[in-house]
């Protein structure tokens, strides 16, 4: 099937872009380049969300993350002057080796669990219709089944906005 | 239009999560620690949306949107802390901030 192969090609390209830009984020010494590669990471994740027919989440990902959050990040990095820290200066330390070992152990554990479960229900996905993941359904779920989560999310955002203002104004007073 | 199974998406999400965890553990600049946290949250978001697609229900997408809102507020507070640290002429190095250590 030609469509099937095309989906696989798009998946492989998006997954490789995702992994490559994720590794680039943690290896660049300049935080400005790290933030730029995180934008690429978020964009390729939006492609993967589209493949999973989550169109609304993909749009929200591009708007909220790649738009608002990353602009704020780049603004702060430009404000601070983008001072570089060399991640692996002075050879590999025991801390870096321990960090690599810890995250590799985490990865192996998760992959083993996925592999153990992969033969059962994980191997075949449910059949969805054309209207799966449309904004109407997302909004209906948010205002009926998950109303508490919706309200708590709004309170969390309000508290974060107030906290940002307080953190910014407090340091101005003490100078 | 049959794409990859949920297993492939889950493996990719695990790789993303561990990349972000490695960045959080290995980097010293708090800005890059925040960026690596974003990668970890996005890995969990990818797993949530893959499970939502696999079960054919949208509840996982609702969770992913809530995680996005939490990530946005975390970035606001984290960047506010970093700017406050920079204004007090503190070193932007998470290994040197030892005042709160018990």
Our estimate of the beta-strand percent of chain B is: under 5%
Give the tally of β-strands of chain B: 0
Tally of separate helices of chain A = 6
Helix and strand composition category of chain B = mainly alpha
How do the SSEs of chain A run, as a string of H and E?
HHHHHH
Low-confidence stretches of chain B at least 5 residues in length (pLDDT < 50)? none
Biggest sheet of chain A, open or closed, and with what strands and sense?
none
Strand-helix topology:
The complex is a heterodimer of chains A (175) and B (102).
Chain A: H1 2-27, H2 31-51, H3 55-80, H4 94-117, H5 135-143, H6 147-174
Chain B: H1 6-26, H2 30-55, H3 59-87
Helix pairs in contact in B: 1-2, 2-3
Account of the 3D structure:
The complex is a heterodimer of chains A (175) and B (102). With 175 residues, chain A is an all-alpha fold. Chain A has two domains: 1-84, NADH-ubiquinone/plastoquinone oxidoreductase chain 6, subunit NuoJ (Four Helix Bundle (Hemerythrin (Met), subunit A)); 134-175. Chain A has helices at residues 2-27, 31-51, 55-80, 94-117, 135-143, 147-174. In chain A, helix 1 (2-27) runs antiparallel to helix 2 (31-51) and helix 2 runs antiparallel to helix 3 (55-80). Chain A is globular, with a radius of gyration of 21 Å. With 102 residues, chain B is mostly helical. Chain B has a single domain, classed as Orthogonal Bundle (Helix Hairpins), CATH 1.10.287. The interface between A and B is large, with 89 and 74 residues.
